[in-house]
Design goal:
three-stranded antiparallel beta sheet, 2 helices, disordered N terminus, 185 residues, alpha+beta, single chain
Length: 185
Amino acid sequence: MLSHLSFRSSRLALAVVGAAVLAASGAATASAAAAPDAGARAGAGQQDGWGQACGTDDLDFTVSTETQAGGYYLVTAKAKPGITCYLEGTIPSASFGSAADTHASPAEQAVSDTVELSGSTAAYAGISPKSANSNGGREFGRLILAVAGDETHPVGFQLPETVEVDRPITTNWHADPADAVPFAA
């Protein structure tokens, strides 16, 4: 019995070390793809199914006001010139202030498809400042946005007018703006 448990512990340790090696090589691939002299290596990595995940600094964002679903902000993200990257179909990191209750929560329960951004291809996310059906909330005049996982490089947008914020929600990133309408549950 003791040798059986010992064998399991060894397998678990090998699995952990193997996962760490794979994670490190994946991070190196993403870093190499961003390096100016890594053009040949980046192309080879993408042929093997690896691609560069989009970071906030890789993208240009625009924000427009929409009226559907009680009003929301449509965020459009496009890759900067010369960049091809992949934006996972998860929520953007979005908030109207620094307090926890001003950070947008998911409006969707599942992950959507990954969007490849290059050239004029865009990804869209909808952010509603208010999902509560109330007359309460705090007023803010800025939207702070980042790609989830890259919150150290956020971008800020001055909104056309102050907005009342109460339990904000956001959709995932989508390839079609019609899929980015944040309906409160």
